[in-house]
Amino acid sequence: MEEKILPKKRKKRWRIGAQMMVVYLFAVLVPVMILVAVTMHNTYTNQKKQEEDALKYNANLLKTYNSAIKQTLYEISTQIYTISDSIVYNDELLSFLRGEYENEQEIREAANRITLMDKYMGNYAGIEEVYVYVDRADMVDFKQFRVPTDEIKETDWYQKAQEQYAPFWVCSWLPDNYGTYAWRLALVRKMVLVGGEGEAVIVITIRDAYLSSRINNQEYITMISVDDMPVFFGSDKKYCGNSLPEPVIQGKSYDDSGVGVIEENEALYHLSSLDISKTSSDMYLLTYAKVQPAEEPVM
Fold first, then answer.
1. Using alpha carbons only, what angle is made at residue 291 by residues 74 and 246, rounded to the nearest 5 degrees?
2. Could you tell me if 108 and 142 are in contact, meaning their C-beta atoms sit under 8 angstroms apart?
3. Residue 223: strand pairing partners
4. Tens of pLDDT along 2-34?
5. Any idea what the Cα angle at residue 100 is, between residues 99 and 103, rounded to 5°?
6. Are 145 and 176 in contact (CB under 8 A)?
7. Mean pLDDT computed over 137-147
8. Which residues pair with 225 in a beta bridge?
9. 79-118 exposure pattern, b = at least 16 Cβ within 10 A, e = fewer
10. 297 with 99: CB under 8 angstroms?
11. 267-271 long-range CB contacts below 8 Å, 24 or more apart?
């Protein structure tokens, strides 16, 4: 016969069961939950530390890459300046620019004897085009010689060349030797024509494909500008003609790493400046990589 459980005994058993449940919760479940929470916290902390270490490591890589670009630009700019030196002080060219001519045929014959610029354009892969703008009434457009149009005379770089003898670099909307316009880097230099008529300005344009072959990198995004001008080189063409996303102060030296928002993405960047020797220009180099955010642990 089944034993009947009296109400008092039932209540007592219920109390004992509840007490055992409390003991179980505090003795087993709570420690387990604390252990899980501590483990997840430590895992996340370790993950964050690894990400911070990786960020520092990537920042060093980014700075190294940025420095390599700066060295490449220094080498290219120095070579172009040296070439410009040999052009602006070339006796044969200066004699031609100071010469007196009876007609257009005489000018063309004299210009044909100037082969120095043809040599540089043929032998140096970095030069897209060399133009000598000659502002005198009897000059004609022939070979590398150009009569500056009113449109050219209104450009900032041409007006700046009239005001100073110091060479400078520009990023401007310039054509290549096929007449295709793009944002290009060029060295502009005024020529001194002692005893001659008019003025002359030499413009040496850098080939964009050459810059890409020396600078481009699939891993990092790169943008380069001159002074307060638009970007002349970008890993993607969409950057050219725009301002740097990280503002710079003209004349200030930069060698800074940081994390910022670029193109609506958190990015690790390095910004540096290059004081181009023997010219009045500075270049600014921005390289960056997108930062992957840390994942929060699921509790």
1. 45
2. yes
3. 234, 286
4. 455 456 555 556 566 666 666 655 666 666 677
5. 125
6. no
7. 92
8. 231, 284
9. ebbebbeebbebeebbebbeeebeeeeebeebbeebeebe
10. no
11. 267/291, 268/55, 268/58, 268/59, 268/62, 269/62, 270/59, 270/62, 270/63, 270/65, 270/66, 271/246
Distance set, CA 38 to CA 32, 35, 297 (Å): 10, 5, 12
This prediction has a pTM of: 0.78
For 111-126, the three-class secondary structure string (H helix, E strand, C coil) is: HHCCCHHHHHHHHCCC
Q: What is the DSSP letter of 131?
A: E
pLDDT for 298 beyond 50 = no
Write down how long the chain is: 299
Cα distances from 225 to residues 76, 77, 147, 165, in angstroms, run 15, 13, 28, 22
Tokens of 156: 């900032």
For residue range 258-275, what is the model confidence (pLDDT) as tens digits? 888 887 788 889 999 999
Burial tier of 268 (Cβ tally within 10 Å: 0-12, 13-18, 19+): buried
